[in-house]
Every structure is written in C-alpha cells, then in structure tokens.
Amino acid sequence: MNALRRIVRAPDLVALVLVAGLAPGLLARQVATMSARAAMGPFDVLRDGHDLAYLVELLAAHPSVGLAIAGPAAAGGLLAALAMLVLTGGLVARLEGRGGFGGAVTGALAPVLVQSLYHAVLRVVFLGLVFLAAGPAPAWISAASLAVAYGLCVHAFDVTRVRACRAADRYHPRLAFRAFMDVLSRRGLFSAGAVALVLLGGAAALAGAFAGLSGDGSAASTAAVRMLAGTGMFLGLWRLSVAVEREQPLR
Predict the structure, then answer these.
(1) CB neighbour list of residue 63: distance below 8 Å, 6 or more residues apart
(2) What is the dihedral of CA 199, 133, 184, 190, to 10 degrees?
(3) Among 133, 152, 180, 249, which is most exposed with the fewest C-beta within 10 angstroms?
(4) Can you tell me the distance from the alpha carbon of 72 to that of 24, in angstroms, rounded to the nearest whole number?
C-alpha cells in the first residue's frame, strides 16, 4: 500500500503517464485507419468499429490491410513504452518525493538506456531457461510458469531502472544482474505484488484489444477501450512505485 500512497501523493504523475502513454496510441489509431483505407483502395469498407468476424474476413480478403493496421498500432505501443523509459528518472524522483523532474530525466537517461540493454540479454536467458525447464510439464503449467517468469523479469527491469537513477556503478552490467538476483531471492512480497500487477496489466491490454476489435464503434465502446488502456498505464506506474518502495531502507 505504501507504493500506492506514493502515487496518491503525486497525482500529476498519473496525468503525465496517461498523456504520454495514450497519445501515441490515439495517433496510431488514426494512422492505422487511414493506412487500411488506402491499402483497400476503391474497396474501402473499413469502419472504425466492426466485429471480430468481420475483421477476420477483411484480412483474409485483403492481407495488405493487416500490415497497414498492425504497423502503426505496434509503433504506437513502442512509442508509449519508449516514453515511459525516457521519463524513468523523473518518475522515480517524484515517487521518492524529490523535485527536479527535468534534471532527473536527463541525468538518468543514459544509464537507464544502457541498463535496458543489459537487462534485455538477461531476460532472454532467464525466459529461455524457464521455457526449457517447463517444457515437459502440461501446457497450462508451462504457460503459467512463463507468465510468472515474465512478471519477474518486468519487476527486475523496474528495479534496475530505479537503481540506475542513483547507483555509483550504474553503467556496469552487474547492476542489472544483481537486480535480477534480488528479485528472485529477496523480499518476495514485493516480487509477488509486482507480478500480480504485470498480469493485471496484461489482462487489461488483452481486454482492450478485444474490445477494440469487436466493438460497435459507439462512443461507449471507444471510451471502454481508452479506459482499459489508461488502466494499463496506471498499473505500469504502480509497478514502478513498487520497485521504488522495494529499494527503500528497511525500517
């Protein structure tokens, strides 16, 4: 709950995260619609809201539309993730109760990007090992194991980002490695809570995607999609706040 209190004490961060996260998606939606209509040419029958069966039929008849829709949508998601990565220093500073948002962003940007590369390598190795270990198990156990492992990876990345904002060795690969090991071996309640938030965020993303594909294009349907996207962004901020709280000295 202390992690949530940190967010309550910084409501401006919620607004910033929602704007930075949702704006690329809204732009991507418009680009995807225009790209799909251009790809279909004179056979333009695309509607902003169409059911899932119609979409499957559309993609079967016009495969190029799939690229036209998926490309901008993926770009929007990547831009939102990149925005959150770039703002790491400022977000951590505000969650810790410190000022100087702009200076914190620029000061932490380089080490956060470097540690992101180290973490990416560790994540691939860790998920690969979990996949090999869970392979002989029943499918549902393998899927659950990979989901939990992915959640631990995300939490380890958040911890790495927090440490990269202030650690003396913030350019060294051991920082990312130690974050991984600490998440796996210490303060399990924080790790469990972060994994739960990752899974909730994934559920919100899937629900938003389904609602967007099967919606009827009404204002209520569009609002539901945006609300689910905003929920996912808020959960991401909460997850980072858990990492900040985890890094506080034991009282």
Answers:
(1) none
(2) 20
(3) 249
(4) 9
How many CA atoms does the CB half-sphere of 43 hold within 13 Å?
A: 9
Residue 90: closest CA among 16, 31, 29, 184? 16
Residues in Cβ contact with 27 at an 8 Å cutoff, skipping those fewer than 6 apart: 76
Residue 206, amino acid: L
Q: How many other C-beta atoms can be found within 10 angstroms of the C-beta atom of residue 217?
A: 12
Quote the pLDDT of residue 69: 57
* SS3 at position 99: coil
Q: Measure CA 242 to chain center.
A: 15
The set of residues, in sequence order, having a beta carbon less than 8 Å from that of 7 and lying 6+ positions away, is: 13, 14, 95, 237, 238, 241
Contacting residues for 221 by C-beta, under 8 A, at least 6 apart = 49, 211, 215
Q: What value does the mean pLDDT take over residues 110-132?
A: 94
H helix runs in 186-218, sequence order = 188-214
What pTM was estimated for this model as a whole?
0.81
Of residues 155, 179, 156, the one with CA closest to residue 167: 179
How many CB atoms are closer than 10 A to CB 30?
A: 12
Q: Would you give the DSSP letter of residue 249?
A: P
